Amino acid sequence: MSNLPVDLTAIQEARRRIFNVVYRTPLYFSPSLSALTNSRVYLKLESYQPIRVFKIRGASNKILKLSIDERKHGLIAASSGNHGLAVSYMAKMIGTTATIVVPTNAVEEKVRAIEEYGAIVVKHGLFHDERFNKALEIQRATRAVLIPPFDDPDVIAGQGTIGLEICEDLPDVNTVIVPIGGGGLVSGISAAIKSLKPSTRVIGVEPERASSMYQSIKNGKITRLSDTTSIADGLATREPGALTYEIVKQNVDEILLVSEEQIEKAVYTVMKESHLIVEPSAAAAFAALTEKAMIKQGEKVVVVVSGGNISMKTLFRVLSKYG
Question: Do both 172 and 239 map to the same domain?
Answer without folding.
Answer: yes
